[in-house]
Amino acid sequence: MKVQQTTLPGVLLLQPQTFGDERGFFLESFQSQRYRDIGIELPFVQDNHSRSGRGVLRGLHFQRTRPQGKLVRVSRGSVFDVVVDINPQSATFGQHVAATLSDENHLQMWIPPGYAHGFCVTSDVADFEYKCTDYYLPSDEGGVLWSDPELAIEWPVADPILSDKDRDHPLLRALIQTENN
């Protein structure tokens, strides 16, 4: 497996080894020892799978007191995947990394607990799968507005399809001020 460090501490871009021929391909999407060997040692307790159409943007989500680490990948289609540092004590606070994950490049992203995460579908349909290190708790969920100008994320769509919740998330600075009061 190829491992690429990103500009955010602990966030990794991973490319599992793929074996292909005229019949198709094979890859191990997860093998616990291999991931432990590269420093991903937290246990995964929940697997999620979402399907979305072109232009759907989900995020930027996080959990406040029970942050989830996520190992994400796309099994069908392609997405523009984004991770944002929301820790005000971090040297990279407010910075983000982004990558295209697809069923053709087989890339995965490791997102340690404590980051906000979101993605936008760039194909007609995308199946997005992720392993989580903690359970989803709706009462603990938080979010940052996807279009926060201070984050300067160059999303591949100008007018995405959003849930009401994602449309109403606060700006990062406002969120941090509210959480600190």
Describe the structure in your own words.
There is one protein chain. This protein has 181 residues and is mainly β. The chain has three helices and 13 strands; from the N terminus they run E-E-E-E-H-E-E-E-E-E-E-E-E-E-H-H. It has helices at 32-37, 164-167, 172-180, and strands at residues 2-5, 12-15, 18-21, 24-27, 46-53, 57-63, 70-76, 78-85, 96-102, 108-111, 115-121, 125-132, 141-143. The strands form three sheets. It has a six-stranded antiparallel sheet with strand order 1-2-10-7-12-5, with no helix packed on it. A five-stranded antiparallel sheet has the order 9-8-11-6-13, with no helix packed on it. A hairpin with a 2-residue loop joins strand 3 and strand 4 (24-27). The longest helix is centred in the last third of the chain and has 9 residues, at 172-180. The protein is globular. The model has no long low-confidence stretch (mean pLDDT 94).
What is the overall silhouette? Answer: globular
Separation, N- and C-terminal Cα atoms: 44 Å
Backbone CA Rg = 16 Å
Say what oligomer this is: single chain
Q: Going across the major beta sheet, what is the strand order?
A: 1-2-10-7-12-5
**Run of helices and strands:** EEEEHEEEEEEEEEHH
Low-confidence stretches: none
Calculate the mean pLDDT score and round it.
Answer: 94
Layout of helices and strands:
Elements: E1 2-5, E2 12-15, E3 18-21, E4 24-27, H1 32-37, E5 46-53, E6 57-63, E7 70-76, E8 78-85, E9 96-102, E10 108-111, E11 115-121, E12 125-132, E13 141-143, H2 164-167, H3 172-180
Antiparallel strand pairs: 1-2, 2-10, 3-4, 5-12, 6-11, 6-13, 7-10, 7-12, 8-9, 8-11
